[in-house]
Amino acid sequence: QRPTLLAPSILSADFGALADGIREVDQAGADWIHVDVMDGRFVPNITLGPAITAAAARATDRPLDVHLMIESPERYLEAFAEAGAAVLTVHVETCPHLHRTVQQIRELGVAPGVAINPATPVDVLRDIAPDLDLVLVMSVNPGFGGQSFIPASLDRIRRTRDLLTAVGSQARLEVDGGVTPDNAASVVAAGADVLVAGSAVFRHPEGAASGVAALRSAAG
Ligand code: DX5
Ligand code: ZN
């Protein structure tokens, strides 16, 4: 298994001091910066768009891992690529022409990812997995930070890992939602190699750098 990457989600950062928050987790050893884009349509919440993504890119040299929780994401791929996304992840639930959308991301020179919600069968990833650099298994229903990890996600992570192995995909397996130092080891043992964490990092009582360190030691 490859080294586990940590991707703090800026959704739980102080947006009034966003660059400082990003620099803090960057210096603490975060591998990627996870950017949660929500449209108030696909998910109930509205967060940020390309302008804030570009501001995040100016604050760090770490890859920006942009998670699009928006309807018709194909309309905005170019804008997020220009804003500095290194990874662009779309939800299978929003993409009737998923293969085309994945190719569009690839043509923009960005690494394509596909996310699935907690009730979406993992097998939907099978035919697209060979074209992906990342699959994202949601371990909460997307929309808000600070929710509890859904326990059934562990089995879904295992089945997704098996699927990637079966099709010979080198895609990374990212898990997003309710990841904490308490469950990180079991999430990694189930097959994850990228951990997203919002509140466990940015709401850590001793600060975000301590949050990254706690996750790093738990994830192994
Ligand atoms: C949920 C977002 C997550 C979220 C994670 O809709 O996609 O990235 O910010 O936050 P925590 O780690 O607090 O669950
Ligand atoms: Zn996310």
Automatic annotation (TrEMBL):
<feature type="binding site">
    <location>
        <position position="67"/>
    </location>
    <ligand>
        <name>substrate</name>
    </ligand>
</feature>
<feature type="binding site">
    <location>
        <position position="9"/>
    </location>
    <ligand>
        <name>substrate</name>
    </ligand>
</feature>
<dbReference type="InterPro" id="IPR026019">
    <property type="entry name" value="Ribul_P_3_epim"/>
</dbReference>
<feature type="active site" description="Proton donor">
    <location>
        <position position="176"/>
    </location>
</feature>
<keyword id="KW-0479">Metal-binding</keyword>
<keyword id="KW-0119">Carbohydrate metabolism</keyword>
<feature type="binding site">
    <location>
        <begin position="143"/>
        <end position="146"/>
    </location>
    <ligand>
        <name>substrate</name>
    </ligand>
</feature>
<feature type="binding site">
    <location>
        <position position="36"/>
    </location>
    <ligand>
        <name>a divalent metal cation</name>
    </ligand>
</feature>
<feature type="binding site">
    <location>
        <position position="34"/>
    </location>
    <ligand>
        <name>a divalent metal cation</name>
    </ligand>
</feature>
<dbReference type="GO" id="GO:0004750">
    <property type="term" value="F:D-ribulose-phosphate 3-epimerase activity"/>
</dbReference>
<dbReference type="InterPro" id="IPR013785">
    <property type="entry name" value="Aldolase_TIM"/>
</dbReference>
<keyword id="KW-0413">Isomerase</keyword>
<dbReference type="Pfam" id="PF00834">
    <property type="entry name" value="Ribul_P_3_epim"/>
</dbReference>
<feature type="binding site">
    <location>
        <position position="176"/>
    </location>
    <ligand>
        <name>a divalent metal cation</name>
    </ligand>
</feature>
<feature type="active site" description="Proton acceptor">
    <location>
        <position position="36"/>
    </location>
</feature>
<comment type="function">
    <text>Catalyzes the reversible epimerization of D-ribulose 5-phosphate to D-xylulose 5-phosphate.</text>
</comment>
<feature type="binding site">
    <location>
        <begin position="176"/>
        <end position="178"/>
    </location>
    <ligand>
        <name>substrate</name>
    </ligand>
</feature>
<comment type="pathway">
    <text>Carbohydrate degradation.</text>
</comment>
<dbReference type="InterPro" id="IPR000056">
    <property type="entry name" value="Ribul_P_3_epim-like"/>
</dbReference>
<protein>
    <recommendedName>
        <fullName>Ribulose-phosphate 3-epimerase</fullName>
        <ecNumber>5.1.3.1</ecNumber>
    </recommendedName>
</protein>
<feature type="binding site">
    <location>
        <begin position="198"/>
        <end position="199"/>
    </location>
    <ligand>
        <name>substrate</name>
    </ligand>
</feature>
<comment type="similarity">
    <text>Belongs to the ribulose-phosphate 3-epimerase family.</text>
</comment>
<dbReference type="InterPro" id="IPR011060">
    <property type="entry name" value="RibuloseP-bd_barrel"/>
</dbReference>
<feature type="binding site">
    <location>
        <position position="67"/>
    </location>
    <ligand>
        <name>a divalent metal cation</name>
    </ligand>
</feature>
